[in-house]
Design brief:
By secondary structure, the chain is α/β, with parallel strands linked by helices. The protein has a single domain, classed as Alpha-Beta Complex (Maf protein). It has 7 helices and 5 strands. It has a 5-stranded mixed beta sheet with strand order 2-1-3-4-5, sandwiched between helices. It is globular and about 40 Å long. Pfam families: CinA. This is CinA family protein. InterPro entries: CinA-like_C, CinA_C.
């Protein structure tokens, strides 16, 4: 059985498309998962680990007022991070992760609150006001488990966009078993 990262690299290679990643709580784990796949260099442009809130604005173009008002753990922030890294690194697709892995709450959000986002060449009808698709997760477990589930979830979110509903339905059942919503 292949991994989500392997499937992603294969699909993007076939489509001739590229990917960039913006990470906060995952701290580079998404990029590491993708670059562990042989042939990833054909599709992976790079990543920005914007762990500090001000870097989300400075490097990824996330609205400063939004960050001030909502904090970094917000669905719009995730969407703007994905769009920002896509633009900054010149990729067809942008992925983003932001959230609270613990041990303490952040920006008024409890541990396990995570937002993952994808931005790409979607049809006009499929695009939300944020410029892509954002998914809210409520994860349980240790800091490490929350971070790893965030990696899996953001990769699966893009696979849903690329491969259609079959993969998405399998993932939805798995997320439900793991405490997501």
């Amino acid at each position: 059985m292949s991994s989500p990262a392997t499937d992603l690299v294969r699909l993007l290679t076939v489509r001739g498309e590229t990917l960039a990643v913006a990470e906060s709580l995952t701290g580079g784990l998404v990029a590491a998962e993708i670059t562990a796949v042989p042939g990833a260099s054909k599709v992976f442009r790079g990543s920005v680990t914007a762990y500090a809130t001000e870097l989300k604005h400075r490097l990824l173009g996330v609205d400063a007022t939004l960050l001030e008002r909502q904090g970094a753990v917000d669905p719009q922030v995730a969407g703007q991070m994905a769009a920002g890294v896509r633009k900054a690194l010149g990729a067809d697709w942008g992925l983003a992760t932001t959230g609270v892995a613990g041990p303490d709450p952040q920006d008024g959000q409890p541990v396990g609150t995570v937002f993952v986002a994808v931005d790409g060449p979607l049809t006009v009808a499929a695009r939300s006001a944020g410029g892509g698709k954002v998914e809210a997760l409520r994860l349980n477990g240790s800091r490490t488990e929350i971070r790893m589930e965030s990696v899996r979830s953001v990769l699966a979110l893009l696979l849903e966009q690329l491969a259609g509903e079959q993969y998405g339905n399998e993932r939805a059942q798995d997320t439900e078993r793991n405490g997501g919503f």
